[in-house]
Specification:
The chain is of the alpha+beta class. The chain is elongated. Strands 1, 2, 3, 4 and 5 form a 5-stranded antiparallel beta sheet that branches. It has one domain: Alpha-Beta Plaits. It is 31% helix and 34% strand.
């Protein structure tokens, strides 16, 4: 991985495409994600407060590192309209070394000092 950094794919749900785009752009602009993908909108079927609900939803997939995950999750919660957004990280167990290094470089925190 990039300098030993674990690269993560973070799956996040949003209320709609506009919200997902707003969150994705903020994550990239703020250096918390190297890239964000917005797949096609989908339908979510879930249990919430004792009832089954079915609603349109938009997902986003952010590429980041384990070192930046907590900050990314805090930012998603701050930007999301959901009371409890799905924020789940999956490790990139293998991948193109150059791509993984690029992810690490894009989300490296600024040097302090």
């Amino acid at each position: 991985m990039a300098d030993g950094e674990e690269v993560l794919f973070v799956y996040v749900t949003a209320a709609d495409a506009a919200e997902a785009g707003r969150i994705g752009r903020a994550l990239v602009e703020e250096g918390l994600a190297a890239c964000v993908n917005l797949p096609a909108p989908h339908t979510a079927i879930y249990r919430w407060q004792g009832a089954v609900a079915e609603e349109p939803e938009q997902a986003l997939i952010a590429k980041t590192t384990a070192a930046r995950f907590d900050e990314l999750a805090r930012r998603v919660r701050a930007l999301s309209s959901y009371e409890l957004p799905c924020i789940v990280a999956l490790p990139a167990v293998a991948g193109d070394a150059a791509f993984l290094a690029w992810v690490g470089m894009q989300v490296r925190p600024p040097a302090s000092g």
